Input
Amino acid sequence: MKKAICSILISILLFSLMSCDRSHLCSLDVLCSNENASLIVEGEKVNSFNFSSNELNQQPLEKYSNIDFTSEENNNSNSKVYRFEISSLAEDTYNLSLKLVDANKYVVDFLRVGIVVDDELKVYKDYDKFEELYQMESDDELLHFNSKSEIFNDLTVDFSAGETKEVVVFIWIEESELYDKNGERYTGWADKSYKASPIVLSLEVE
Output
């Protein structure tokens, strides 16, 4: 009887420990729909590409102030960094749009997206006028999502014929969102950042 009880208790304990492991998906689909342009990923020309990672307990939780947006490797940051190039056959202006796919409210609340084109950085977050947070980042430096399902649709890039430009996308869950208006960090069950998954984004070059 004692052995049976011990076995049950051990099974419950193992199940509890296993349930603590969480899989965090971060995915970016890139599509080029303009016939004069193509994407270059790892030296290969493609019309579309999926960047993704799905790891246990490896959520891209980071502080905006810790990210070096000029680094080639970004080794000191937990943010996800995806790089590709746009190559143009003709002199043209392309429009980039970025959408959130089936994002839950936690992804919308916590998500930050940075994009670098022509050495110019733009960082986006959701805007909530009723939100009272202790912000360690400056809202003056950030742009706001167009909506809960679209981050932006108006980023334009000018190309001359035969020109190639790099695009770098940074994706992370902002740690400053885990502080209340008095600067106290949420911990335990009050920390809802773990619910900010999956992060699925779709970027189109038109």
Notes: The two ends are 69 Å apart (CA to CA). The mean pLDDT is 87. The first strand starts at residue 23 and ends at 32.
